[in-house]
Amino acid sequence: MIYLGADHRGFKLKDTIKKHLSDGNIAFEDLGAITYDEGDDYVDFAVAVSEKVAGEPCEHKGILICGSGHGMDMAANKFPAVRAALSISKEQAIQSREHEDSNVLVLPSDLVREAYAKDIVDAWLAAKFSKGERHKRRLGKLKDVEIRNFDVRAHFECDD
Question: Which residues are catalytic?
Fold first, then answer.
């Protein structure tokens, strides 16, 4: 299953991606925003998608869309077993699957045209994890970091 989420800045592109997935007979579930709301927060949709992907990280995938992609990417990567990759090109999307076995694609609606976004999604969905030894080793290290830091409750504010 592919779970979709977008805030108000990604809302229009999400509708484009939904139609594209439907046209390709690819199963998906839209976790919001269901209606356009200029006051919504990207975090809510990143959480909804990331919880689903984290529940079955080898089976499920997610696509998150906001203006810059940064907020969605940061929020999604807070979840254990979620490997979100912000991509503005097909090559980035493919490498994120082949090298990092990404399970969430993050698109920046402000930077990617709709037609190209569909190409990025197609490339990401078609790409597979290479299972190369160095990539498996690096993912193992990431998993160790997740386990070590899972219960850390850090609260901080940076003063500029």
Answer: 66, 99
CATH of residue 13's domain is: 3.40.1400.10
pLDDT tens for the chain, residues 1 to 160: 999 999 999 999 999 999 999 999 999 999 999 999 999 999 999 999 999 999 999 999 999 999 999 999 999 999 999 999 999 999 999 999 999 999 999 999 999 999 999 999 999 999 999 999 999 999 999 999 888 876 555 555 556 6
Give a yes or no: residue 156 inside a domain: no
Q: State the residue range of the domain holding 78.
A: 2-149
In a domain, 159, yes or no: no
pTM score above 0.85 = yes
Backbone dihedral region of 91: left (phi > 0), alpha (psi from -120 to 50 degrees) or beta?
alpha
Q: Is residue 160 included in any domain, yes or no?
A: no
- Select from 18, 75, 15 the least CA-distant residue to 41: 75
